[in-house]
Amino acid sequence: MKGILVAGALAAFLSIFSTPMLIRLLGKRGYGQFIREDGPTTHHVKHGTPTMGGIVLIGSSIVAYLVSHIVTRIPLSISAVLVLALVFTLGLVGFLDDWLKVSKQRSLGLHARQKLTGQAIAAGLFAFAGIHFKDHDGLSPISLHLSGVRDTSFALGSIFVVIWVIFMVLGTSNGVNLTDGLDGLATGASIMTFLAFVLIGVWEFGQSCGVTDVSKCYQVRDPLDVAVVAAALAGSCAGFLWWNASPAKIFMGDVGSLALGGAIAGIAITLRTELLLIALGGLFVLITMSVIIQIGYFKISGGKRIFKMAPLQHHFEIIGWGEVTIVIRFWILAGLSVATGLGLFYAQWVVS
Question: Which residues of the chain have pLDDT under 50?
Answer without folding.
Answer: 44
